[in-house]
Write a structure and sequence with these properties.
Helix content: 25-40%
CATH topology of the largest domain: Rossmann fold
CATH class of the largest domain: Alpha Beta
Oligomer: single chain
Number of domains: 2
Strand order of the largest sheet: 3-2-12-11-13-14-15-16-17
Radius of gyration: 22 Å
Length: 443
């Protein structure tokens, strides 16, 4: 593995890095602003120091991120809202663009407008062992956990992804996935920095806004999540023209969504399977002849006796050779595998097993359903588990939804709690937690 990693090393002098609706920022401009932020941060002593970022837009985020790294800080990202300072490992410093009374306000730095800065070297070199970020898992299947990544893991993986997916200098990435989580950070921010490409400052969510920003920015790569991609199917013909690649991660992408995007918009979605703990581990394209998952370069995968996915990756934490995940898989002899969901997503109700993912897919397949989420929790009594479902759509009712499910599933495992709601309480990363599903029901 390399001893250090370079950011902006593949950008030509004056090359664009960030597109905004008011101008384009070059690699030199971003590097200079990051150095200005670094100069305003207190020095880091012998002990590790952490900084949190509270800014709007990816331009401000990347300037804050790089400034913190240049000064030797670890950036804390994605802390759960319910976490106390003690639980989140409260940051020593803040970088913000608001009204915080303490920390570094980067608004004056960002007002130094963009433009090519000549042929000066913008490269930022970081040691492989420098800890860069502390990230929380999403908490979609349990309590959020804090994990740390150094440059070897974060930047090394970005280099691998660049080679695996052929990112080029001419590419411009538009991301709807938030940079506070590992997928959005890697694909939406770090990958362009190591590949010589550029990215868009805005993170639109509504389908028409995504299409408008993509068109204005001439973005040709979209980094998104299944919930956002499903909404894009409704766009009219040619609204997504110009996209050469679309990435999806964070949750399973429904095959109907993948096929509809391909048929209606000639877009092929590349799904990436991974986690905060492991980084990216596998990929697939559902419109290809072979829809099975394949390991990413350098990653070795196998299944254990419980059919769990076991990961050996150069991007695991130091001292860990293999990671046993909670993913339920079946391997073929050629190394491809089918992903059945999480082991903990298979629950038993009154002695009968059911996969929550299968229930969720059945809901999405119903006419009129635009979003859905299913969760389970333990209860006392003979059933042992109760399942709740939230469904979004027009002209739907709970009784009709249950009746449709009863045509496919045993009565015991059909959710007793079905609610038609205005929206599923998804986070910015497109995921929904078990607690959020039951809170919506109980509330």
């Amino acid at each position: 593995m390399p001893k250090s990693y370079a950011l902006f090393g593949r950008h030509e002098p004056g090359a664009p890095v960030v597109w905004t609706d008011t101008g384009v920022y070059s690699s030199q401009a971003v590097a200079e602003m990051a150095k200005a932020v670094a100069g305003q941060l207190p020095g880091v002593g012998a002990d590790e120091a952490a900084v949190s970022i509270d800014v709007q837009g990816r331009l401000g985020f990347v300037v804050a991120l790089l400034g913190a790294w240049l000064r030797g800080y670890v950036v804390r990202l994605g802390a759960p809202r319910a976490a106390t300072d003690a639980e989140s490992g409260s940051a020593d410093q803040w970088i913000h663009d608001g009204d915080r009374s303490t920390g570094v306000d980067i608004r004056m730095v960002l007002r130094d407008r963009a433009g090519p800065r000549g042929a000066s070297n913008a490269s930022i070199v970081l040691p492989a062992g420098q800890r860069l970020v502390s990230l929380w898992t999403s908490g979609s299947t349990g309590e959020p956990q804090l994990h740390h990544k150094d440059a070897r893991q974060l930047l090394g993986e970005a280099e691998m992804l660049r080679e695996a997916f052929g990112l080029q200098r001419a590419d411009r990435l538009l991301a709807t996935a938030p940079p506070e989580h590992v997928y959005g950070l890697l694909f939406g921010v770090v990958l362009p920095l190591v590949s010589g490409s550029s990215f868009v400052d805005a993170s639109p969510l509504q389908p028409t806004a995504v299409a408008a920003v993509r068109r204005a920015a001439t973005a040709n790569v979209l980094v998104s999540v299944p919930a956002h991609l499903r909404a894009l199917v409704s766009l009219g013909p040619h609204e997504l023209d110009g996209l050469r690649r679309v990435f999806s991660s964070g949750a399973p992408l429904l095959s109907d969504t993948a096929r509809s995007l391909h048929q209606r918009h000639q877009v092929t979605v590349t799904e990436v399977l991974g986690s905060t703990e492991t980084g990216g581990i596998a990929w697939r394209e559902q419109v290809a002849a072979d829809t099975r998952w394949r390991a990413l370069p350098g990653v070795k995968l196998q299944q254990d006796d419980a059919a769990r996915l076991v990961v050996a990756s150069p991007f695991l934490p130091d001292g860990i050779d293999r990671w046993t995940s909670a993913e339920h898989v079946t391997f073929a002899s050629d190394g491809g595998f089918v992903h059945h969901g999480r082991i903990d997503g298979i629950v038993k109700v009154a002695g009968k097993r059911v996969a929550l993912a299968e229930l969720e897919r059945a809901l999405f397949a119903m006419p009129g359903v635009t979003d859905a989420a299913v969760a389970a929790r333990e209860i006392s009594g003979a059933r042992g588990t109760e399942i709740a479902a939230l469904v979004v759509g027009d002209r739907l009712d709970a009784a009709g939804i249950r009746a449709a499910l009863l045509r496919r599933f045993d009565r015991v495992v059909v959710p007793r709690r079905v609610a038609v709601v205005d929206r599923v309480p998804r986070g910015a990363n497109g995921k929904v937690t078990k607690s959020a599903v039951f809170a919506a029901w109980d509330g």
